[in-house]
Amino acid sequence: MAISDIKEFAHLTEADVEAIGAELDAIRREVESSLGARDARYIHNTIRFQRALELVGRAVLVGSKRRGLWWLGAATLGLAKIVENMEIGHNVMHGQWDWMNDPEVHSSVWEWDNVGASAHWKQQHNYTHHKYTNIVGMDDDVGYSLLRVTRDIPWKPMNIGNVFFNALLCAGFEWGVGMQHLHLASGMVKDGVKLPFKEGIKLPEIQKRLGEFRHKAVRQVVKDYVLFPALTGKAFRSTLTANATANLIRNVWANAVIFCGHFPDGAEKFTTADVENETKGQWYLRQMLGSANFNAGRVLGFLSGHLSHQIEHHIFPDIPSNHYHEIQQRVRALCEKYDLPYTTGSFAKQYFLTWRTIAKLSLPDRFLRATVENAPETSSELRFRVDGERAKPTTDPVTGVRRGLKTAYGAARPVWSRALRTVRGRVGRAAARPAAPLAEDSAL
Prior knowledge:
Blueprint (H helix, E strand, L loop, with lengths): L5 H4 L4 H21 L2 H24 L6 H27 L24 H14 L30 H10 L1 H8 L8 E2 L2 E2 L8 H29 L4 H25 L19 H11 L7 H6 L6 H6 L8 H14 L9 H14 L33 E2 L6 E2 L1 H27 L13
Helix pairs in contact: 2-10, 2-13, 3-4, 4-9, 8-9, 9-14
């Protein structure tokens, strides 16, 4: 099972959790008080850069019948779409720049270069995903209702296509995100009452949303595959394929960045237990434990919309993204103080782990080594119980350093390694005896 008691899992007391919340609130206040002209210049310069990049890409595609210009135009346009979606659209629609009261970059008016309607995305992403982050059965981003990314989701025969479905989602990510909202019923509130998850919404509302999605998608398709190719005259067909390639580049990159922030090992999943009574400190803690970063320099961070700092983004989704790097130092220090893991790694490693989990969970549980309690992609507080009892927060008597979840991970790792070697030994011995069936508890 996923984590049902965050305090227990993290080896923290209620006072610890609330102290973490208070420290993060203090960071928020400091950053908000520092916002000013430098930040305004940053977002306006980013918009100017993105528009210039798009203009260059579309101008180059006038000569797209030549192979070199086709590749240059497709790559430049793809890069422009990445910047618009990741660093501008995503962050503007989070309300990161609303403090400026500038209608050009206000979350209420921005419509991004994507087939999904901005209003739909804001409801699905800003509310459901960020409020119920990684809660199985409430956050539709846990597998996008298509993929099995945790053993808490029971295996179904369709999951055998996990890798294939993820490849499709990766290539058509804007369509997957755009259509994701259309079946949304999770977390809906009507007349002050929270509706049960997956309870059907009324037909008129479904029809309204379908109409809005259809209007936006048709407009986007006409722009990319009719209007702009037509402006290049005889290069219509080559420009059309270049535009499709630019969208593919953007889709694959956006999918990779977002998956690296939510599905590598260490990005925990949670149950619905106690969510209704969750405090601000517990919410902060869930964001810290349920998100993952990847190491990035200035360029890679910019192209990811600074979602290389996914942990910081989930803690402060409406703080301007250009502050995440400085916030990161303080969040890491907070994790060290309370002995909490800070999940990060190279981009290649985090992306590999997401695909590994997706491939692994295409199989029924009986073919997997770990259990639902101690799988690397989904942990549980039961993993660290001592003789069936909750692990108490302790302090090293010599150093005075707190012992918490990070220490527990380190202590448990040798045990898991020994267990893994034992399993591999059993499998090897079983393989040497072809007539002997493989024991279920040592199945891979």
